[in-house]
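re: ur question from yesterday

yeah so i grabbed the chain u mentioned. its 251 aa long if i counted rite. heres the sequnce exactly as i have it in my notes:
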Amino acid sequence: MSESTNETVSFGYEQVAPEEKTRRVGEVFTSVARKYDVMNDAMSLGMHRGWKDRFVKRVKPQPGEAILDMAGGTGDIAFRMADRGANVTVADINQDMLDVGAERALDRRETEETGSLVFTCQNAEEVSFASNAFDAYTIVFGIRNVTYKDKALAEAYRVLRPGGRFFCMEFSTSEWSGFKQVYDVYSDALLPRMGQVIAGDADSYRYLVESIRKFPKMDEFESMIRAAGFVNTKYETILGGAVAIHSGWKV
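ran it thru and got these C-alpha cells back, copy pasting raw so excuse formatting
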C-alpha cells in the first residue's frame, strides 16, 4: 500500500497534512542552510566527513557517468563524485540549500579529470528527468525528510538505467546498547542547544532528531527499497546502525 493513502504524515513527533509537512521541512532547511555544514561538523564531531568518503567509495563513481544526487543541497557528496570524473546533477527541493552548494562550487579547484556539476530544484517524489537517464542515484541524509518515501524510491528506480545503482545513507537506530543510551541523551538534550548557539535555531534541530526517531528501522527501509523494484538490496551499518548505507540495483 502506498504511503500516499494516509491522511496525515509525520513531521517529527507530530502528525500533519502532507502539504504541511512539505512546507515545514522547507522552512527547516531554509533556516539552517547557511550553517548546515558547520552544524554537521559540530553534531558529528567531524565524523560525517569520513562517513561521506566511505559512502562515495561504495558508490564507485566512474569518469563520464551520469549521477543524480538527490537532496544534494550543499554539494558535499556531489563534489566528491565529480572529483572522480562523474557528471553529477545535484537536485534538492530547497533552493536555499542549492544556492549554498552553487556558491561552494564556484570556489572549487577543477582539473581536466573533474566531472561536471549541475544544480536544479527538484521534488524527489516527482523529478523532471527522463526515465533511464542516470547510471547511479544517491541520496544522503535526505530521504527521511521526504513526505512520501515510496514515491521517491519509485522515481529513483524510474530514472536509473538498467544496471543502475541506488545508494542511500541515512541516520537510523544504533543497536549498540550502551552507545544508544548515550546517543539518545546527546540527541535530546544537546543537539537543539547546539542548533540554537551555532545556527540560532533550536526548533529545526529538534525536528531533525525527531525525524531520525520516526524513520523506519534498517530492515524495514530495505523492504521499501525492494518494493520499489530494486534487487540485491543490502545495508551496511556505521556506529552500530546510528548511520546506515543502503544499496540496491535496477535490472
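noticed a couple things. DSSP finds nine helices and nine strands in the chain. also Strands lie at 9-11, 14-16, 66-70, 87-92, 117-121, 134-140, 160-171, 231-238, 243-249.
anyway ttyl
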